[in-house]
Acetyltransferase (GNAT) family protein (Palleronia pelagia), 181 residues
Amino acid sequence: MEHLDEGARPERVDALVALVEASFRDAADSDEARIVSDLARSIIATTPASDLKVCSALSDGARRAVILFTRMHPAESGRSVFLLSPVAVATDAQGQGVGSGLIAFGLERLRQDGADTVVTYGDPSFYGRLGFAALDPDAVPPPHPLSQPVGWIGQALDGGAVRPMSGPLKTVPAFDRPDIW
Ligand SMILES: CC(C)(COP(=O)(O)OP(=O)(O)OC[C@H]1O[C@@H](n2cnc3c(N)ncnc32)[C@H](O)[C@@H]1OP(=O)(O)O)[C@@H](O)C(=O)NCCC(=O)NCCS
């Protein structure tokens, strides 16, 4: 599996969005698939290049997995914090380490770019294997009230503890919707 840091300019947005839609349709249902794939399209369409990173896993040149990272804006200056969401692996490529490998690749690229922290909102049992741990919402306040507080997780990219933040993290516009938190 080849890993590609596409920056903010994925070559084929429609193929990327279709991969997200199919992956979530098979894993969840068509409503969730539509919500997440619409979100992916909106992230790519509306996020400034400096605030977006797209990484893909390719096999024989075909995209088999994709992950989006968007910048979060803490109250403090001098921090570089990203949100990992969404990540999707083609259904027939799941359970073979593709998702874990792509997440590890993306985290390393963000670290090289100077990011200090990555947060996400997902299943702690999956992300826990990849260095993510529960975030204290008082120390790292989420952008909106969470419907599933257990899913608020993150990690510092220097291997230490996540440094606290003094106010809610602000998202890029595509994520600034209370209904998806
Ligand atoms: C979740 C997902 C990204 C994981 O990628 P993957 O390539 O299938 O996972 P890997 O092969 O790297 O890791 C597999 C391990 O993670 C576990 N795992 C996979 N999906 C999981 C989930 N949603 N929750 C908990 N554990 C999960 C598997 O049970 C497996 O464990 P095992 O090694 O003990 O058998 C992928 O399955 C996927 O795209 N699913 C549909 C979309 C989705 O749910 N995206 C994540 C939310 S944003």
In short: The longest helix spans residues 30-46. The chain has one domain: 2-171.
